[in-house]
């Protein structure tokens, strides 16, 4: 296996060295690609030192040296990669020694396009811990509930399986064949500054054959600190609803361009509409909600059915 590990770097001078070192421990890691995204701290200097010290570490910036977000940075990393497999790692996270154990076995089968695993959590600051626990229920493993592969992964991530699969796994625990990405033409939605990873994973599960790997113990660790963007958005805030609408709208647009089954298209459409209504205010919100219920009562059974009823 020749694995390219892609690390977007923004405001991570304290953490990126550990992330890089955790990737370099594996012989299979052919290269570590750092995409520095105009960090306000000294991350660029740290990245330069890492690239000078280790020939497997390659440093890039966007052509205009500007800030474009994690999605655009990962897209640039994919473009610059030369490995047969691609793995992702956030600059404030790190791999554990068992990171590619499942991949060594499952990628012997040519039908497997990607393997995903479980990750753990490390609290790097008290404030980061408080923000994380206020938004995320499980402080331990981020994983799915049972082993699955193929179309069941796609359905499970959307909450369409009879047994609750779990709604996400993270990029830190995903490895995918480069050829599968090239064949699907899939990239990260650069218009999404948050949830672009979930958007990418769901679409990937549709276009590629994914298989669960190690789901009962961590293969990587995510670091939670004061600057984690996702934990700063309360589930009950208008900002959360707006970000969720942008996420589901991205899936909606994509669903109209692909041959998804009618039930899945309907599910995505209802989720999008629910969050679209959630950001409305006053009388117009009530009127639009009643019209949406009349058109399709199942909108009241969406996963996020309570958010759009809030004023």
List keywords for this structure.
311 residues, alpha/beta, Spore Coat Polysaccharide Biosynthesis Protein SpsA, Chain A, 7-stranded mixed sheet, 3-stranded mixed sheet, 11 helices, globular, disordered C terminus, Glyco_trans_2-like, Nucleotide-diphossugar_trans, Capsular biosynthesis protein CpsI
Protein model, in words:
- This protein is an alpha/beta fold and 311 residues long.
- It has 2 domains: 3-224, Spore Coat Polysaccharide Biosynthesis Protein SpsA, Chain A; 238-306, no CATH class.
- The protein contains 11 helices and 10 strands.
- The protein has helices at residues 16-24, 43-53, 69-80, 101-106, 126-135, 151-157, 178-184, 196-207, 238-257, 262-278, 282-295, and strands at residues 3-9, 29-36, 57-61, 85-88, 93-95, 114-116, 118-123, 174-177, 210-212, 218-224.
- Strands 3-2-1-4-8-6-9 form a 7-stranded mixed sheet. It has a 3-stranded mixed sheet with strand order 5-10-7.
- Strand 1, helix 1 and strand 2 form a beta-alpha-beta unit.
- The protein is globular.
- The relative contact order is 0.13.
């Amino acid at each position: 296996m020749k694995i390219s590990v892609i690390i977007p770097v923004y405001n991570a001078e304290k953490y990126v060295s550990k992330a890089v070192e955790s990737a370099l421990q594996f012989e299979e890691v052919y290269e570590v690609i750092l995409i520095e995204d105009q960090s306000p701290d000294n991350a660029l200097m740290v990245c330069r030192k890492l690239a000078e010290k280790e020939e497997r570490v390659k440093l890039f910036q966007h052509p205009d040296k500007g800030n474009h977000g994690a999605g655009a940075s990962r897209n640039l990393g994919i473009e610059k990669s030369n490995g047969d497999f691609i793995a992702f790692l956030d600059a404030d996270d790190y791999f554990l020694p068992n990171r590619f154990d499942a991949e060594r076995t499952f990628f012997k089968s040519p039908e497997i396009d990607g393997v995903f695993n479980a990750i753990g959590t490390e609290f790097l600051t008290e404030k980061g811990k408080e923000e994380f626990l206020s938004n995320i229920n499980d402080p331990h493993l981020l994983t799915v509930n049972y082993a699955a592969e193929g179309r069941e992964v796609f359905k499970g991530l959307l909450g369409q399986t009879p047994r609750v699969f779990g709604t996400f796994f993270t990029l830190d625990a995903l490895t995918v064949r480069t050829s599968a990405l090239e064949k699907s033409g899939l990239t990260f939605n650069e218009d999404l500054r948050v949830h672009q990873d979930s958007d990418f994973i769901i679409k990937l599960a549709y276009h590629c054959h994914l298989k669960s790997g190690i789901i009962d113990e961590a293969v990587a660790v995510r670091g939670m600190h004061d600057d984690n963007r996702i934990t700063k958005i309360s589930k009950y805030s208008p900002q959360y609803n707006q970000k969720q609408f942008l996420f589901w709208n991205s899936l909606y647009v994509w669903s109209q361009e692909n041959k998804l089954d009618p039930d899945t298209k309907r599910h995505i459409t209802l989720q999008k509409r629910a969050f679209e209504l959630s950001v409305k205010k006053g009388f117009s919100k009530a009127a639009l909600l009643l019209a949406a219920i009349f058109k399709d009562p199942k909108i009241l059974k969406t996963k996020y059915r309570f958010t759009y009823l809030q004023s």
